[in-house]
């Protein structure tokens, strides 16, 4: 099954949080921060949203930075995805 987002929405999959710190300390599950970097899985077509023309600038495979509580979480075929509006993306990570 696939997800095809509508209008200005984007489907992302969160990337795993680091398990060790830069100094080599291994983090316990509760100590890990919620990751805010995700990979773009699918992109809507854009179009008219709330009376404004929205041009999509994200591409499949882009790594993006999100705010911690953006979007709606969905589970499909045992995998977790988040559907967000393109405007909820803070930056593209290169």
Could you walk me through the main structural features you see in this protein, from its secondary elements to its overall organization?
This protein is an all-beta fold and 94 residues long. Helices cover 0% and strands 43% of the residues. It is built from no helices and 8 strands. The protein has strands at residues 9-14, 37-43, 47-49, 52-54, 63-66, 72-76, 79-85, 89-93. The strands form 2 sheets. The chain has a 6-stranded antiparallel beta sheet, with no helix packed on it. 18% of the residues are buried. The model has no long low-confidence stretch (mean pLDDT 84).
List the helices and strands and how they pair.
Elements: E1 9-14, E2 37-43, E3 47-49, E4 52-54, E5 63-66, E6 72-76, E7 79-85, E8 89-93
Antiparallel strand pairs: 1-2, 1-7, 2-5, 3-4, 5-8, 6-7
């Amino acid at each position: 099954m696939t997800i095809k987002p509508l209008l200005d929405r984007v489907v992302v999959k969160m990337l795993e949080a680091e398990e060790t710190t830069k100094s080599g300390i291994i983090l316990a599950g509760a100590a890990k921060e919620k990751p805010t970097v995700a990979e773009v899985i699918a992109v809507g077509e854009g179009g008219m949203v709330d009376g404004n023309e929205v041009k999509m600038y994200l591409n499949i495979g882009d790594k993006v930075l999100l705010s911690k509580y953006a979007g709606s979480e969905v589970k499909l075929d045992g995998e977790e995805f988040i559907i967000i509006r393109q405007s909820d993306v803070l930056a593209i990570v290169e």
